[in-house]
Design a protein that fits this description.
mainly beta, Immunoglobulin-like, Jelly Rolls, 2 domains, 6-stranded antiparallel β-sheet
Length: about 290
């Protein structure tokens, strides 16, 4: 559980200014955020919301890692606004409000020495554009292997592996198959000028996986950026599904002359294991309508 220094400072200051018999708090508890999606247009309701940015009557109470329980020096009916937060690029030290999720708002009552339990739900903002959305549920995979790749991405329908829907994508590296490279089959037109662009990805892996951006120009030339993010291998036999939100904004905006973009994946077999297994699902590239 992260320590919320801002909240601690505010709460401590309030305590100092109160009489001893006035410091009985109310309590606010939040277990988790949930996400509701239109699966046909927005894909699965997979989410990795890690934090709650909590406001009461327009005043910030702080940023808290979920689940959380916090004291509030007030009672009665109040208006709460809670923003869903994420670990930007999967890094714990870079926590932000996710710009594509709506806030949760509710009017609720606090009672001294009692706990108000909230179960916030969020949805994608109506102006969110899904430039790429691969759920591995339709014929054909939205990734094509590169010319140097030893293997291709395939469908997997093992219910012991798949978490969302009926299938996911998989990359297997074993024997002489030691390298995978592949990119999206779609040429995405993405906003520049610092506009937020993110890739969402679910992954389960016992081998590291890197991703990056390819910029394509009007003359047919391309600029394949150095892999931007590496998803580290999980211990063999102990893999679980994880969610990551990858900020593509800078990589996209720096290529001012680009006419379209692709996402690429790169995996090199880790020699310590007999078979490298990388599963991916719910690959989404999102931005807001211009």
């Amino acid at each position: 559980m992260i320590k919320n220094l801002l909240f601690i400072s505010i709460f401590s200051a309030l305590l100092i200014g109160c009489k001893q018999d006035d410091i009985t708090p109310s309590w606010l508890a939040i277990e988790e955020f949930t996400l509701t999606t239109n699966e046909a247009t927005q894909g699965a309701n997979s989410q990795g919301i890690s934090d709650a940015w909590i406001f009461m009557d327009g005043t910030a109470l702080g940023v808290f890692e979920l689940p959380c329980k916090l004291p509030v020096l007030d009672e009665g009916t109040h208006n709460f606004i809670i923003f869903p937060g994420i670990k930007n690029n999967g890094i714990s030290s870079t926590r932000i409000r996710y710009p594509f999720y709506n806030s949760y708002q509710v009017e609720a009552s606090l009672a001294l020495n009692d706990t108000l339990h909230l179960s916030p739900n969020t949805t994608y903002k109506s102006e969110t554009i899904f430039a790429f959305n691969e759920a591995f549920e339709e014929p054909g995979i939205g990734f094509i292997k590169g010319p140097t790749s030893d293997t291709d991405m395939v469908f997997v329908d093992d219910p012991a592996i798949v978490e969302y829907g009926d299938e996911c994508g998989a990359i297997f590296l074993a024997g002489t198959d030691s390298l995978y490279t592949g990119s999206t089959t779609s040429f995405m037109v993405l906003p520049k000028g610092g506009a937020d662009v993110y890739m969402e990805l679910d992954y389960r892996n016992n081998n590291s996986l890197a991703m990056g951006v390819i910029a394509r120009f009007a003359d047919g030339s391309v600029d394949e950026h150095t892999p931007y993010i590496i998803m580290n291998a999980q211990p063999d036999g102990q893999e679980v599904w994880k969610k990551i939100y990858i900020d593509l904004t800078e990589d996209v905006s720096t290529e001012i002359a680009a006419v379209s973009y692709e996402i690429f994946f790169l995996a090199v077999r880790d020699g310590e294991i007999d078979e490298s297994r990388i599963y991916i699902d719910n690959v989404k590239v999102v931005h807001l309508e211009e």
